[in-house]
Structures are given as C-alpha cells and as structure tokens.
C-alpha cells in the first residue's frame, strides 16, 4: 500500500477536438509545478496521479498542485490491491475512530466481481464490526466518507477527502496577454483572473526612477514572482516613463497628468505587446474606483489603442472583493507595502474625473508624443521569473 495524490480536472473542456491540446497544456503545467520534488506524474483516464514522492513533502506538492489552473480537486489516496481484504486494510487507516460515516464506491473496472453497492455494503459492515460500536453509518450527512475507486489491473484507490484547487483552464490554452502590473492590489488579481481562463501572462511595469525607488521595483518583482506560481512563470518587463512625466509636468495642465500618462502607458504597452506576441493588454481597473477609472477615463485610454483590446477583468468588482481574492492568492501582504507608484509622482491635487477628449488632444499636442514613446521603448528591461 502506498500514498498517491489524485489530481482531477473538469471533463467539460475535454469534449471534441480540443481534448489533446487541453491535456497537453495541463500536463506541461503540472510537471512544471512539481519539478522541484522527487516524484512521478502519470496520466490515467480523466486525471493524473502523483506517486513515488517523499511523504513529508506531500503537503508542499499539494500546495503547488492547488495553484495549477485546470485542476479542480485533489485527494491523497492509498493505492492498494483491489481485493476486499486490502480495501478493508486501507479503509481502516482512513476511518476516524468514532462518529458517523458512509462508504462510497466507484468501479472503473467493470469486470470487478462485485457491484459498487456491494463493495460499499461489505466495507461498511466490516468497519462497523471493527469499530465495536464507535462508528455509525449515516448515508445522508456522514461525518466522514471512505471512498473506494476500483481501477483496472487489480488496483484500487481509497481516500477520504477532496481538496479544492483553483479550477479554471490550463494556462497556455487561451492566448497571451500583457498585464500592466503596478505595485498595487488590483493588477496582480487581474492577471490571476485572466490566467484562470487559460491565458499566458507577461507583465509590464512602468517606473519613474529615480522618483520611484528601487524598493518599489523590487516590490513589483516580488508580486510577479507570487503571480508566477499561477501563471506558469512570467516575464516581467520594466520601462521608464520618467521623461514623459517630466514633459507633461512642464507643458500640460496638471489635472490631466494621470489621463495623459495613462495614454502614454497604453501606447507603449501596445507596441511592446505586439513585439512579444501578446494579443491584448490587461489592467486592474475597476469602474469608478478612482478618478481615472470612470468610463470617460477608460474611453480616453482606449482611444489610443491601435488594434489590441484592453481586458479589464475586475471592472465589475468591488474593492473588497478584489482584496479578498488578493489575500487568497497570497499577494495582498506584498501589495500593501508602502512604496510609491509612478502614478503617485507629480500627482495633481485635483485629477480630472471626466476628461474630455478635445482637451486631452489639445494638451497632448504640446508634446512630442512619438519621440517620448521611442525614448521609453529604447530601453526595456526583461526580468525572467
Ligand atoms: P493597482 O492596485 O493595480 O495599482 P489602482 O487601483 O492603484 O490599481 P491605478 O493606479 O489607477 O489603480 O491603476 C489602474 C491600472 O493601471 C492598474 O491596475 C494597472 O493595470 C495599471 N497601472 C497603473 N500603474 C502602473 C504602472 N506603474 N505600471 C504598469 N501598470 C500600471
Ligand atoms: Mg496603482
């Protein structure tokens, strides 16, 4: 008898001709997640098994597997021979010493000599006898369940619990997006949401060094690092917008600082996205959250996009919902570290809430837009995480 980890994925995506594509991506991502451990990943029909690991590492392996999009649930199981005595031995290990329980059986091997109902009954009876009155059967609301899965070739898996994983679709099955990654709470969550739908993510961070500090940049690297556990790695690009902010500050109306800067960021991001083969931009904007995230603000930044769409997966989320998700995914503590973002440099007292395009264009015409963009794109730093 040995311990194995069952990794299940949703069958729903497996219909039709995408099956191989989906499974290949999932398998690649699973292998990547557990590559630091001694263990083996084997494919079975409709799921994977992780086996031959050191038992004291199983907890860490599960933690990694739980973060792989496409995985829906995980169980630690005992792999045993499928004869009744062996099933009983395994059930004894999983059963609690007292309380109510039921046995649930499933036959993958339809040639097995007993039906699933017969297996459950027989094992239930043996457990009752073994517990000498400490256990009771309750098929409706049992305190624990012993689950038996009869596999082929005389092998069975016996387990008790389902551990939730992240769900979603395997990263790498839904194109590639460039995430505008600030040091805040929202953008890492936005990246997570798109990766959850199978999108491969790279990150782009704009800094205003030396107005923004090295710590601010390190914080973003750490956020990318935390996010990379879900996105199967991430390339983080950093680009300076210092000279752009200085130019805006010098020539344009202060209340339009953020609006104008945003438009530069989108233009630069789109060009960079195309260069690295990304098919969209992703931002952490949420409608009405701050002055620049009104529909007018979004329209103004969208209007500089040439061909790529801007995805805003958090547009309808409340801040509290975003925070909840960021705590759960593990980025919150880093996000709230108090380092300045480039958007907070040269911050006007009263940013324009509903910027009018005519006014924006008028202000922008005072700047050498193309020259400033070229200057930013001339030096792009790439950090592979
Ligand atoms: P976040 O928590 O993600 O920083 P926020 O609520 O602070 O968001 P803003 O600062 O208005 O909102 O930024 C809105 C979005 O613009 C961010 O979610 C991010 O996608 C992008 N963004 C803002 N600042 C930067 C930056 N310095 N580099 C890259 N993207 C940025
Ligand atoms: Mg921010």
Task: Write structural notes for this entry.
With 385 residues, the protein is an alpha/beta fold. Helix content is 38%, strand content 22%. It has helices at 19-33, 58-65, 84-94, 116-131, 186-196, 214-231, 242-251, 257-275, 295-302, 319-329, 332-335, 357-364, 369-377, and strands at 2-9, 40-44, 47-51, 71-81, 99-107, 135-137, 144-150, 155-159, 163-164, 176-180, 200-207, 235-240, 281-282, 310-311, 380-384. Strands 1, 2, 3, 4, 5, 6, 7, 8 and 9 form a nine-stranded mixed beta sheet that branches. It has a six-stranded mixed beta sheet with strand order 14-13-10-11-12-15, sandwiched between helices. The model has no long low-confidence stretch (mean pLDDT 94). It binds adenosine-5'-triphosphate (ATP) and magnesium ion. Residues 180-182, 184-187, 204-206, 283-285, 289-290, 292-293, 341-343 line the site of adenosine-5'-triphosphate (ATP).
Question: What's this, in brief?
Answer:
With 385 residues, this protein is of the alpha/beta class.
Task: Set down the secondary structure blueprint.
Layout: E1 2-9, H1 19-33, E2 40-44, E3 47-51, H2 58-65, E4 71-81, H3 84-94, E5 99-107, H4 116-131, E6 135-137, E7 144-150, E8 155-159, E9 163-164, E10 176-180, H5 186-196, E11 200-207, H6 214-231, E12 235-240, H7 242-251, H8 257-275, E13 281-282, H9 295-302, E14 310-311, H10 319-329, H11 332-335, H12 357-364, H13 369-377, E15 380-384
Helix pairs in contact: 3-4, 5-6, 5-10, 7-8, 8-9, 8-13
Residues 180-182, 184-187, 204-206, 283-285, 289-290, 292-293, 341-343 line the site of adenosine-5'-triphosphate.
């Amino acid at each position: 008898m040995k311990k194995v980890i069952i990794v299940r994925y949703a069958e729903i995506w497996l219909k039709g001709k995408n099956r191989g594509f989906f499974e290949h991506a999932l398998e690649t991502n699973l292998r990547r997640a557990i590559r630091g451990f001694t263990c083996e990943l084997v494919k079975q029909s409709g799921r994977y098994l992780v086996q031959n690991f050191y038992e004291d590492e199983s907890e860490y392996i599960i933690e990694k597997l739980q973060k792989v999009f496409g995985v829906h649930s995980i169980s630690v199981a005992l792999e045993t021979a499928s004869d009744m005595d062996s099933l009983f031995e395994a059930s004894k290990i999983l059963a609690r010493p007292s309380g109510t329980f039921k046995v649930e059986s499933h036959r993958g091997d339809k040639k097995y000599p007993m039906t699933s109902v017969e297996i459950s009954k027989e094992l239930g009876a043996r457990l009752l006898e073994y517990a000498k009155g400490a256990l009771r059967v309750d098929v409706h609301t049992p305190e624990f369940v012993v689950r038996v899965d009869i596999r082929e070739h005389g092998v069975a898996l016996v387990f008790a619990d389902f551990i939730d994983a992240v769900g979603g679709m395997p990263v790498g099955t839904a194109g590639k997006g460039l995430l505008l990654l600030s040091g805040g709470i929202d953008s890492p969550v936005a990246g997570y949401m798109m990766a959850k739908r199978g999108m491969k993510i790279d990150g782009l961070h704009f800094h205003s060094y030396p107005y923004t500090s090295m710590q601010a940049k390190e914080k973003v690297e750490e956020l990318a690092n935390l996010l990379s556990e879900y996105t199967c790695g991430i390339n983080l690009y950093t680009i300076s917008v210092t000279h752009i902010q200085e130019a805006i500050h010098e020539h344009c109306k202060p209340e339009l600082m953020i609006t104008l800067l945003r438009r530069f960021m989108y233009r630069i991001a789109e060009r960079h996205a195309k260069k690295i083969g990304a098919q969209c931009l992703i931002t952490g904007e949420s409608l009405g959250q701050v002055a620049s995230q009104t529909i007018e603000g979004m329209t103004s930044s969208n209007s500089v996009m040439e061909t790529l769409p801007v995805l805003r997966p958090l547009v309808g989320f409340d801040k509290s919902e975003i925070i909840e998700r960021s705590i759960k995914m593990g980025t919150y503590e880093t996000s709230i570290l108090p380092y300045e973002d480039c958007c907070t440099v040269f911050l006007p007292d009263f940013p324009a809430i509903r910027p009018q395009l005519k006014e924006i264009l008028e202000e922008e015409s005072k700047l050498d837009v193309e020259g400033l963009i070229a200057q930013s794109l001339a030096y792009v730093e790439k950090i592979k995480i």
